[in-house]
Design a protein that fits this description.
Radius of gyration: 16 Å
Helix content: 55-70%
Number of strands: 5
Distance between the termini: 13 Å
Bound molecules: thymidine-5'-phosphate
Mean pLDDT: 96
Structural class: alpha/beta
Low-confidence stretches: none
Largest sheet: 5 strands, parallel
Strand order of the largest sheet: 2-3-1-4-5
Length: about 200
C-alpha cells in the first residue's frame, strides 16, 4: 500500500506522518517512511537545491524538472522495491505537490506536468492520499514560528493561495483517492481520523 500526505506549509503533515508511522510499527507492519523531495542520497541533494534561498533565479521549468527528477530517484530506489516486497510506503508529499505548486502556483501546464511526471514515476499513483487542509496564511504563520522560511515558503501569499486552490481542485476531482482532513483540528483528532481510514482500508 502506497500512502501519501499532502498539504500546504504548516499543515502538520510531517507530524501526522510520523504518528502514523509509529502506529503502523506498533502493529508490526512492514512500513517505510520517506519524503519527496528526498529519501535517497541523490534526491536529498536535489531537495537542498530547490529549497535554497540563494537559488532565487531558478526558472519555473527547471524547478519542476528538479522536483520530478528527485521523485524518479525516490520511486526507483525506495518506493518500488518496498511495494514490490509487499510492504507499506508512507511518503511525505508526492506528485500532487507538483500539480499544486508548479501547476497551480507557478502556472505551468498541468497536462505537461502529468506527462513528464508519470514518465518519472512509471505511472505510480498513491492508493490513498491524506490532504491536510489549512488556511495558507495560518500555515505560513505556524512555519515562521518554528523556523526560517525556505525559497518556496518565502514566495508571496497569492502564490500560496493559488497552491491551495490547486489542492482543492485535486481533492474535488479525485475524491476516492484524496481524503481531505481539517489541518486546524487538534493533532490527536487528526491522527484518529487518519487511523480510522487506514483501518477501513486494511479490513
Ligand atoms: P516540505 O516537504 O518540507 O514541505 O518541503 C518541500 C517544499 O517543496 C514545499 O515548499 C513544497 C515544495 N514542493 C514543490 O514545490 N513541488 C513538489 O513537487 C514537491 C514534492 C514539493
Amino acid at each position: 500500500m502506497f500512502i501519501t500526505f499532502e498539504g500546504q506549509e504548516g499543515a502538520g503533515k510531517s507530524t501526522q506522518i510520523a504518528l502514523l508511522y509509529n502506529y503502523l510499527l506498533a502493529r508490526d507492519a512492514n512500513v517505510v517512511l520517506t519524503r519527496d523531495p528526498g529519501g535517497t542520497e541523490i534526491a536529498e541533494k536535489i531537495r537542498e537545491i530547490v529549497k535554497d534561498v540563494q537559488n532565487a533565479a531558478m526558472s519555473k521549468r527547471a524547478e519542476a524538472l528538479l522536483y520530478i527528477a528527485a521523485r524518479a530517484q525516490l520511486v526507483e530506489e525506495v518506493i518500488m522495491p518496498q511495494l514490490t516486497g509487499g510492504g507499506i510506503v508512507l511518503c511525505d508529499r508526492f506528485a500532487d505537490s507538483t500539480m499544486a505548486y508548479q501547476g497551480f502556483g507557478n502556472g505551468l501546464d498541468v497536462d505537461d506536468l502529468g506527462t513528464i511526471g508519470s514518465f518519472a514515476t512509471s505511472g505510480l499513483v498513491p492508493d490513498i492520499t491524506f490532504y491536510l487542509r489549512i488556511d495558507a496564511k495560518e500555515g505560513l504563520a505556524r512555519k515562521l514560528a518554528q523556523d526560517k522560511l525556505d525559497r518556496i515558503e518565502q514566495k508571496d501569499i497569492s502564490y500560496h493561495m493559488d497552491v491551495g486552490l490547486g489542492y482543492e481542485y485535486l481533492a474535488k476531482t479525485q475524491p476516492r483517492r484524496i481524503i481531505v482532513i481539517d489541518g486546524a483540528l487538534p493533532q490527536d483528532e487528526v491522527h484518529q481520523l487518519i487511523t480510522k481510514h487506514i483501518e477501513n482500508l486494511m479490513n
